[in-house]
Write a sequence for this structure.
């Protein structure tokens, strides 16, 4: 618990997280306002269309993952990893704490991002006289899926940061994976691609394309990715000397 | 060389309670003195480079030890292995009888500063300390205490970005003191400090050690620590070159002593009687080899011979150090 307080202070005490939060808010607002007001009404009437507008808040996952990466890589970049390890020599315990902190910060990103997009998007639709036809359970799955998904992306970020401790390297790995690798794999080999984290996370909040996993399976798969990456991360963290 | 002539602090008989629990002890003048730091056959290999080679040493409680060697000699690697940041290739190192990682509350036993720059530039000095202290349950009030101790209270809420190097050094020191440790490990703490900062550090360390606590301080310049340390460990090419008290090291300062006297013949005879090798410089001066100026002066005094000049030529303590560390590995 003490350890967690310390990790949360690390997140709060620099401007990095504020910057990431601000970035998320700007992007969420821009997308929702532009898409919500500029799309023709016919483009907003099906449940699928509404979902694709209202689920944009899941972009919070990207920011949550970046924040998670920072939680580990900033320590290596600025050398605070030395005093951190001196105070907490147990590296597995430290990583577990960072994972919890990453999940909590991801939760904040998720609530803010998806809350903002859903609230604003639904309001714009109402003002334009478009009825929300998504079922109650679909809405619940979207909100819970996007927010929990963002928390899990925070975990993935922490794990990725402890595998690739170089900050630039870790950020590039994340972006390359998100924008290139996973889309290519899903495009060519959907049977494999649907088990990859972004597509599984999409399934988890009900944003399902053909050949994707069911929502509950998707959730399990994302949790599985968290566990595997965290395990690799802890092994790497323990084996790597600090200079 | 009056700078280096100093009395050694008496070895502390009362050992801090916690230190004695699991430590190895040995006897000095009938007093059990716990070994605070110990390494046995410590070795670190990076690829084909042996950074630390079969390095064994021990440090007893209540001493200030200078860990000396040129840059790249293996000092930092040794300290990192000692503190659990790097894994030895073979051998082991312990603090208070345990590998660092197995200490119950390491921050309350050992304080260490390895780099002067280990701060997030955008974080305030106070937050830097809080993120460390909170992790191990040290009360926040202690943060303000150590800030005051290193004279950073006024700058505490400013971001580290705006700190001078000296302020960063002191912030690092403050972090190492959070847990009120019994052992302080400092890697090149005087690097980049101005003379005033060096003096501040020296006074601080003396004060710290005067309570029976232990200090291990590394440097690549003997002069930086010569006024502070009791003992020296000299490392070169990853190997232990010398382990001695500062006094023994000073005793190796033996250049040629030039002595001028009106009674040169008598003086020469007296010195030769003591087994010293002398040679005439001219009608008024003698060169005495392999002796200290103290020795020559004492001999002359004992013989009742007036001396008009007494000068040490040749090696200084720093030169002895350079000589010891210049040798290529066998």
């Amino acid at each position: 618990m003490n350890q967690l307080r310390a990790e949360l202070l690390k997140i709060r005490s620099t401007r990095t997280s504020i910057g990431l939060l601000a970035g998320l808010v700007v992007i969420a607002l821009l997308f929702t306002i532009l898409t919500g007001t500029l799309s023709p009404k016919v483009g907003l009437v099906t449940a699928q269309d509404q979902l694709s507008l209202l689920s944009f808040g899941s972009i919070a996952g990207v920011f949550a993952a970046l924040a998670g990466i920072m939680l580990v890589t900033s320590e290596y970049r600025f050398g605070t990893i030395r005093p951190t390890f001196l105070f907490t020599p147990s590296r597995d315990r430290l990583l577990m704490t960072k994972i919890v902190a990453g999940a909590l910060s991801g939760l904040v990103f998720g609530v803010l991002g998806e809350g903002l997009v859903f609230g604003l998007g639904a309001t714009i639709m109402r003002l334009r006289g478009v009825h929300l036809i998504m079922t109650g359970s679909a809405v619940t799955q979207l909100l819970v899926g996007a927010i929990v998904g963002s928390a899990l992306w925070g975990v993935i970020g922490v794990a990725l940061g402890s595998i690739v401790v170089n900050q630039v390297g870790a950020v590039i790995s994340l972006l390359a994976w998100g924008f290139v690798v996973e889309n290519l794999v899903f495009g060519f080999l959907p049977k494999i691609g649907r088990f990859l984290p972004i597509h599984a996370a999409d399934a988890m909040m009900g944003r399902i394309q053909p050949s994707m996993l069911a929502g509950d399976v998707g959730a399990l798969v994302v949790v599985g990715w968290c566990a595997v990456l965290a395990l690799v991360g802890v092994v790497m963290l323990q084996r790597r000397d600090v200079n | 060389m009056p700078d280096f002539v100093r009395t050694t602090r008496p070895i502390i008989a009362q050992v801090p309670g916690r230190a004695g629990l699991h430590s190895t002890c040995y006897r000095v003048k009938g007093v059990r003195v716990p070994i605070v730091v110990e390494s046995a056959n410590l070795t670190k290999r990076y690829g084909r480079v042996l950074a630390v080679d079969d390095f064994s040493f021990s440090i007893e409680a209540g001493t200030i030890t200078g860990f000396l060697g040129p840059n790249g000699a293996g000092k930092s690697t040794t300290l990192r292995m000692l503190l659990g940041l790097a894994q030895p290739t073979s051998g082991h190192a312990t603090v208070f009888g345990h590998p660092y990682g197995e200490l119950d509350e390491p921050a309350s036993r050992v304080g260490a500063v390895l780099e002067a720059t280990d701060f997030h530039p955008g974080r305030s000095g106070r937050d830097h300390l809080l993120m460390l202290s909170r992790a191990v349950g040290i009360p926040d009030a202690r943060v303000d205490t150590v800030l005051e101790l290193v004279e950073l209270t006024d700058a505490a809420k400013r971001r580290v970005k705006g700190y001078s190097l000296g302020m960063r050094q002191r912030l690092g020191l403050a972090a190492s003191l959070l847990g009120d440790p019994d052992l302080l490990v400092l890697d090149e703490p005087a690097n980049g400090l101005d003379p005033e900062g060096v003096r501040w550090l020296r006074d601080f360390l003396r004060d710290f050690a005067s309570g029976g606590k232990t200090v291990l301080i590394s440097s690549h310049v003997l002069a930086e620590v010569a006024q502070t340390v009791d003992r020296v460990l000299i490392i070169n090419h990853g190997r232990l070159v010398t382990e001695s008290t500062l006094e023994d090291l000073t005793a190796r300062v033996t250049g040629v002593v030039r002595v001028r006297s009106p009674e040169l013949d008598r003086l020469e005879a007296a010195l030769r009687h003591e087994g010293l090798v002398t040679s005439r410089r001219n009608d008024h001066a003698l060169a005495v080899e392999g002796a200290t100026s103290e020795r020559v002066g004492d001999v002359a005094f004992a013989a009742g011979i007036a001396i008009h000049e007494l000068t040490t030529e040749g090696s200084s303590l720093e030169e002895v150090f350079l000589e010891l560390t210049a040798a290529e590995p066998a």
